[in-house]
Design goal:
mainly alpha; 76% helix; 250 residues; globular; 8 helices
């Protein structure tokens, strides 16, 4: 059957699908939405792992200056700063454990959602283990302090065996007190948020609902600032510092 008319123009077929511009718009929006979602997840991941990245860069900087005449002073300064950080984290974790213990004794927890107590008990456990691990790391550094060549031995502990790169296992151990402390605080805050905001869906609009709303404002603002600071450190400050120092940024 001839599909052309006398002017040799193709006939319109009733089986042709009509073109909808909004379909192209939806197809163009999906990759954009996926991209923004992946970027948001990556930003959250980098913010939560910011102490790890800071420590990785610092160790990488130490290993890159191994032949420097000031190498020993730099390593010993890093050791001193690391021990002070571990002691501070242990003290802060002890305070958090006290706050969590006092919070569990609140009368309001009797009517709280069961997840609140799960998060708070988990926070308490992580805080206590943070103190224990920090104590073990203090013993580890004391074993290096008695060696006359402790700078070289510390570098050997930090680097991989066959290349001048930070050893993942050593960095994981050194970062564990900070990680446990951070997770402990986050766990407590999430449980506190669940406890305070529950009146918003549990009861009508009353005094507790106003308190929950005000708490959410502070919570969202503080959380936003936390991610902004962490994202700025990981995405701008550390890369600039690494570029100025000639060290590759992961």
């Amino acid at each position: 059957m001839d599909v052309y008319n006398n002017n040799h123009e193709p006939k319109s077929s009733t089986n042709d699908h009509s073109h909808h511009p909004h379909q192209d718009h939806e197809r163009n929006e999906r990759p954009s939405q996926t991209y923004h979602l992946s970027r948001t997840i990556l930003m959250i991941h980098h913010t939560l792992q910011m102490p790890w990245h800071c420590q990785h860069w610092t160790i990488q900087q130490l290993l890159s200056t191994r032949s420097s005449p000031t190498k020993e002073a730099e390593v010993l300064l890093w050791e001193q700063n690391t021990k002070e950080q571990i002691q501070f984290v242990a003290l802060a974790a002890t305070l958090v454990a006290g706050v969590v213990g006092a919070s569990v004794a609140w009368s309001a927890t009797n009517e709280a959602h069961w997840l609140v107590l799960v998060l708070w008990y988990g926070s308490l456990v992580m805080s206590l283990y943070c103190v224990i691990i920090a104590f073990h790391l203090g013993i580890l550094f004391s074993a290096y302090d008695i060696r006359p060549d402790r700078a070289d031995r510390i570098l050997d502990m930090l680097k991989q065996r066959e290349k001048e790169e930070p050893r993942w296992r050593s960095q994981w151990v050194l970062n564990m007190p900070i990680a446990l402390f951070s997770w402990s605080v986050i766990s407590y805050l999430v449980g506190l948020a669940l406890l305070v905001v529950r009146p918003l869906w549990k009861v009508g609009w009353e005094r507790d609902s106003w308190i929950a709303t005000g708490f959410l404002v502070y919570f969202v603002l503080s959380t936003s600032l936390y991610f902004i600071v962490g994202g700025t450190i990981h995405g701008r400050l550390l890369p600039d510092l690494a570029h100025q120092s000639g060290v590759a940024w992961p």
